[in-house]
Structure prediction request, 199 residues.
Amino acid sequence: MIIIKLGGSLINSAKGLVKEIIDHSDKCRDEILIVPGGSVFADTVRKIDASQEAAHWMAVLAMEQYAYYLADGTGAKLIDSLKIDCIGTYILLPYNLLKEKDELPHTWDVTSDTIAAWVAKQLDARFIKVTDVDGVYINGVLEKEIYAGELIGKETCVDRELPHFLIRNRMNCEIINGNCPGRLVNALAGNVSGTLIKG
Prediction:
């Protein structure tokens, strides 16, 4: 099982990436679950005056809006649970699942990054974050491999909670630039060009 967090920053190319994921899954017989980012829908939530509690659930619903967009015309299947019975590519509608298992803090420190990591933990799955940058930069230098603890307190391409979550659960996160042709497919095949965050 592979969990792919598909960043909202990739909205303009995201459907092509979903089709690449489906092609890989069909060819290699992998089970792949895409966890959508919040994209422009979550950006709207950030701009309004809502409590952290309300904003948390509104942002999760923003992920669902992006999920419907990603599924539209791509052939990926939308699901709202972690019960995956067949090989293929699925896109998670996370609201009902997170309402049922409400284990993450309700703050902007927790975004779809940590939610996707939580999903990967539930399924004991490989975790890949696909975004619009090459990986984690520290002082302007791209890190090929870095320990999660080194990210605590730093502004990077992952949310503030993710390093803590990876450490607590001894998990890794691979970061791939989805705007670079071929990188995602290569990563799915085990050839990662980006940053490996080690928990």
